[in-house]
Every structure is written in C-alpha cells, then in structure tokens.
Amino acid sequence: MPGLMGYSHISLSVTSRDASVAFYRDVFDFEPYEVLDHEAWLETISVHPVTGMVLGFQQHRDNDGEPFEHRRTGLDHLAFRVASRDELVAWQARLVERGAVYTPIADREYGSVLCARDPDGIQVELFYRVNHPEPALTTRGDDHG
To answer: Considering the entire predicted model, what is its pTM?
Structure first.
C-alpha cells in the first residue's frame, strides 16, 4: 500500500491575503516563506518555525468578498494542538494582548478548547486533550515497497 508521511500543507481561501498573513504571523508566529501570485490569485505560503506546519493563504482575484460560513461543505475550522491546559491559558493571554476575537477556554468531555477568529471569521482552535492521539514516528524503509 502507498504510504503517507503526514500532511503537506493547508491552504485557506481568504478575502485578503495580506490581512491573513499578518494575523497568522502576529498571533501564531507563522512566517511568510514564498509568494506564488498568479493572474487568477494571490498566494503566500507561510511556515511555523517551530513545528514546520505550512499554511497557504490564497486570495482568488474573482472572490466577491463572500464571508466564511462553516456550515457549507469544506472547511469547518482549523485546530492547533497544544501541550497542556496551562498552555491554553497562556494562549488566551496572547490573544487578549494581540486584540484577537476569541471565545474563552471551554473544558469539554473531549478536551479543552480556546477558539479565535481570523480576519475572514474562520475559527482557529487551540486544543488540548489528555491522551491525544500521537502521530506515528516511524521511518519508511526499503522493505515497505
């Protein structure tokens, strides 16, 4: 069976590439890596320097400014895992400091969640759960072929 090595990137369609790049840089420390503008879109690829997560922000030139709606087919929300419940408290303080729109930490049966909204209203969750599933940290050898 062909293998997967984890996710490559997440690309978000946004109404303002520049506003989204600034938000994810200022709040979550994603750094712009590459600009891939095209006649049909503007795009910046950003990378988180600690985790290596890659987010793309794509502004389609024919976007009519329609707001994000999580009930439509497609993206519901974006969630980042954090190391502890105390980390959520620190993130909440950072969201306040940065003037981000957010909902206070909620402790649920499935875990603890802190939600913020990006410039397009996309919900960005910071999530902590005891015994969160871990990715397999194995390497693929020649015997998997």
So the answer is: 0.86
